[in-house]
Design brief:
Blueprint lengths: L3 H12 L5 E2 L28 E11 L5 E7 L2 E6 L4 E5 L5 E6 L5 E7 L2 E6 L5 E5 L5 E5 L12 E7 L2 E6 L4 E6 L5 E6 L4 E8 L2 E8 L2 E8 L5 E6 L10 E4 L2 E5 L17 E7 L5
């Protein structure tokens, strides 16, 4: 099993894009950035990492207008509202099917699985709130590898087969945690200034990013942490926050609250939208 000491010992190198930790191999290194195969980062400078363009299409507005995270469910789509911290289950036309109240604050990440909603608080008391469909809090736990009372903020959560992938701001990486034991298992470091929602697609994980170029996506190999692909948004596209994968398509939400912007500046604030990849020009 991975130990706190093992993971902390490689965090510095990992954030620089040189190493990644996997519990199955203790502190197993992968190729260094100098050898052209860095884990995490933003993938720029790698000749074998394609950069693609996207088109965004607004679908419907969220129930309260401040959607900061989304998660796919069998019945539709869960939406986490940033201001109220409510979770709304809607169908794919935006009709509200259920509303769950949570104790999360400034919710910025959301997962659904195991019969529970997993809400990531990005304000005190921080941490991940496990909530059942009756609005009952099952657990509240901090992101591992930090102070017991405050593991730092979070900008994305995805539940997959009993594991949570957490975009942990303090660690500057996507941390995989066992949802039952709460043991950290793997870290994919990133080097972008702003990270947000995450979504898994088979053996790959996508993350919303933001830098001086604008918004984008990074696709990582979920087993090795290697950067596989980059996508860039145009200035006219919707502003991505949360992220979800459904039937071969990525979906996101425009929270209407963006660091450094006046509230609701984005023309598509409050909307759920789909992301389509444009064909490369030959």
């Amino acid at each position: 099993m991975i130990t706190r000491r093992n993971l902390l010992g490689v965090l510095g190198a990992g954030v620089a894009g040189a190493r990644l930790v996997d519990a199955r191999s203790e502190a197993a290194p992968i190729q260094s950035a100098q050898r052209g195969a860095p884990p995490g980062g933003d993938g720029r400078g790698q000749a074998d990492v394609p950069v693609r363009k996207v088109k965004t299409t607004p679908l419907f507005k969220s129930p309260e207008g401040y959607p900061n995270a989304i998660a796919v469910a069998p019945d539709g789509l869960w939406i986490a509202e940033q201001k109220s911290d409510n979770a709304h289950l809607v169908d794919w036309n935006g009709k509200v099917l259920k509303t769950v109240r949570t104790e999360s604050k400034n919710t910025s990440g959301m997962g659904y699985g195991g019969g529970y909603i997993w809400m990531a608080a990005n304000a005190a008391p921080q941490g991940i709130f496990q909530t059942d469909p009756s609005s009952r809090t099952i657990s509240h736990r901090q992101i591992p590898l930090g102070p017991r009372e405050n593991g730092g903020g979070c900008h994305g959560v995805e539940y997959v087969d009993g594991k949570l992938w957490i975009a942990a701001l303090r660690l500057r990486g996507i941390l995989r945690v066992d949802a039952t034991t709460w043991q950290p298992e793997m870290l994919i470091p990133y080097s972008v200034p702003r990270a947000h929602g995450v979504a898994c697609n088979g053996k790959a994980i996508w993350m919303v990013t933001g830098n001086e170029r604008g918004a984008g996506l990074i696709k990582y190999d979920a087993e090795t942490g290697r950067t596989l692909e980059i996508a860039e948004f145009a200035a006219s596209d919707c502003d991505p926050h949360g992220l979800a994968w459904h039937d071969g398509v990525l979906y996101s939400c425009d929270a209407g609250i963006h660091p450094g912007w006046p509230e609701n500046q984005s023309p598509t604030h409050g909307y759920i939208f789909r992301i389509d990849f444009l064909k490369s020009e030959i």
